[in-house]
Design goal:
The chain has 558 residues and is α/β, with parallel strands linked by helices. 52% of the residues lie in helices and 9% in strands. A 5-stranded parallel beta sheet has the order 2-3-4-1-5, covered by helices on one side. The longest helix is centred in the middle third of the chain and has 19 residues.
């Protein structure tokens, strides 16, 4: 007997054997039991998930000698002919090569003939979305009112390309991608029945590459078996290296090694790892996509998501990923993912993939070295506030790494204020637009806000009402980690110019404060007189106002 490939040899022959499409199998079986057999079925879904297989099983269920039955026997003449593909009453048509009007006209003529020896004449049209619009229109009447012995079964991967007029005349069934763990389980069953031994870790990458397609997974498994050279019935196990080599897949350990080097900010080690990857002939674009998947996995783990079933990972891979995930914060992994996505995008137009990968990995190291916002907030929340006093100058930054002689220096109040303003700006908080132009002075736990002259300080005084000051006080106190009092200070008034009018006002004020103002003024205006009181309060004020000195009669004047 000629050799049969695994995908054909292990094709399901009963509803119960179709993997992960129970929702379709159960519905069809129940409809057959109730005698509700439709004249047209449409099976849609990804490639290799069992659409054509299900169509053949349905054909056996309808034409089995015991049928219509929900459990075809699989051994009668009709079932065997359908299995072998030579039944006169089950016609399989490739929609891609029989998509014209003439083909449909021929089909319409043939549907009028009764089945040769079965109850139904069944047409299975694969890739039906390839049929032209004109051909679909020619099929409409037949599809709507077919002879009672006709059943159409359409299969497609692109249901959206089928006209609505056709869809409305069919019972529609949607097939799903098969999860990795179910693919692995089925592959393990096949390997055991074939008499081979294969590593558990070798099956998972095969299943992941198949991307939900059982047919693809079976084809890959056959390649792995052929590559390994292991004979059936022997104790030699097919290793993970065999599977990865034939598929060109990078093991998860390589990515874990890379993430550990990033966690240790080991740029030299990263460049050495890149050199190994390139020397192995691994495609950089594919490797970069795998790196993004690992970063995604680490972030999902840190978010408490059970990714083993979602991503189809082995227990050993999950352990390695968990150990790596705890080394990074969510913020770091978020930035890693963004940088990695840019790498994948740039590689499409790059002429030197290695350079882009190297620079991206060094960028990840830089992110790791830089303090995250989370760390800064934790530092602020754990502090007791700064004892520093004085004006808060915008853009006056000081490094947190500077230390005092005996202990770490508390966060600079200027840094705290600037970060506070920056946070308000990012959140588009209205307080930012109120505070960005003011001068702030911090002293002994009191923050005084002042607007310089010329900026309409009187208007700002109205804006900084009690409620606004309270809001600033609450938010900045959280940043400082201690209670801060916020006040609205008054700008210092400008000094009056020493004009004649001002001098007159000073004299008038001095006269009001002195018992004999006129006599005092005369003393200044007539210095030849000697009978005045030098200690007079008014005289002292006048002297200060005019920046003068008292000259007694007879003194030399320059």
């Amino acid at each position: 007997m000629a050799y049969q490939v695994i995908a054909r040899k292990w094709r399901p022959q009963a509803f119960s054997e179709v993997v992960f499409q129970d929702h379709v199998s159960k519905t069809i079986q129940n409809s057959i039991k109730q005698g509700r057999i439709s004249h047209a079925y449409l099976f849609s879904g990804p490639r290799g998930v069992g659409k054509t297989t299900m169509a053949r099983i349905l054909a056996k269920a309808l034409n089995c000698v015991k049928g219509p039955t929900a459990e075809p026997c699989g051994v009668c003449e009709n079932c065997l002919e359908i299995k072998q593909g030579n039944s006169f009453d089950v016609i399989e048509i490739d929609g891609a090569s029989n998509n014209g009007v003439d083909n449909i006209r021929e089909l319409r003529e043939n549907v009028n003939f009764a089945p040769a020896k079965s109850k139904y004449k069944i047409y299975i049209i694969d890739e039906v979305h390839m049929v032209t619009t004109q051909a679909f229109n020619a099929l409409l009447k037949t599809l709507e009112e077919p002879p009672p012995h006709i059943v159409f079964i359409f299969a497609t991967t692109e249901m959206h390309k089928i006209p609505e007029t056709i869809l409305s005349r069919c019972q529609k069934y949607f097939f799903k991608k098969i999860p990795v763990d179910r693919v692995v389980e089925h592959l393990r069953t096949i390997v055991n029945k074939e008499g081979y031994k294969i590593s558990e870790n070798a099956l998972f990458p095969v299943a992941r590459i198949a991307d939900g397609s059982m047919r693809d997974a079976q084809s890959l498994l056959e390649q792995v078996i052929s590559f390994s050279g292991v004979a059936t019935g022997t104790d030699t196990e097919i290793s993970e290296e065999d599977a990865l080599s034939i598929m060109g897949v990078v093991p998860t350990e390589s990515y874990i090694r890379l993430m550990n080097l990033i966690a240790d900010t080991d740029g030299k080690g990263l460049m050495s790892e890149v050199d190994k990857i390139v020397s192995m002939g691994i495609d950089i674009s594919r490797y970069s996509s795998g790196l993004i998947e690992v970063i995604r996995s680490l972030r999902l783990i840190n978010s408490g998501v059970d990714i083993q079933a979602i991503l189809g990972l082995s227990a050993e891979e999950m352990k390695s990923l968990r150990n790596a995930a705890i080394k990074f914060s969510d913020e770091e992994l978020s930035r890693f993912f963004t940088i990695g996505a840019d790498l994948v995008k740039n590689l499409r137009f790059s002429g030197n993939d290695r350079v882009y990968l190297e620079m991206t990995l060094l960028d990840l190291v830089s992110v790791r070295k830089s303090p995250s916002i989370t760390e800064i907030i934790k530092h602020l929340e754990s502090g007791t506030g700064s004892t520093q006093s004085g004006p808060l100058k915008k853009n006056d930054t000081q490094s947190e790494s500077r230390v005092q002689p005996e202990e770490k220096r508390p966060l600079d109040i200027n840094d705290a204020w600037n970060r506070f303003l920056k946070d308000l700006e990012m959140k588009k908080d209205k307080l930012y637009y109120i505070l960005r132009s003011l001068d702030a002075v911090f002293n002994s736990g009191v923050l005084t806000l002042q607007y310089p002259d010329g900026l309409g300080s009187s208007n700002y005084k109205d804006i900084l009402d009690a409620d606004t000051l309270k809001a600033i006080e609450e938010k900045f106190s959280l940043v400082m980690g201690s209670s801060i009092t916020v006040k609205n200070g008054k700008p210092a008034p400008p000094a009056e110019k020493e004009t004649v009018e001002n001098q007159a006002k000073i004299i008038e004020k001095a006269e009001e404060e002195n018992a004999a103002p006129v006599t005092e003024a005369e003393m200044i205006l007539n210095p030849e007189k000697e009978d005045y009181n030098i200690e007079s309060h008014a005289v002292t004020k006048l002297q200060s106002a005019f920046h003068g000195q008292i000259i007694k009669k007879g003194d030399d004047v320059c």
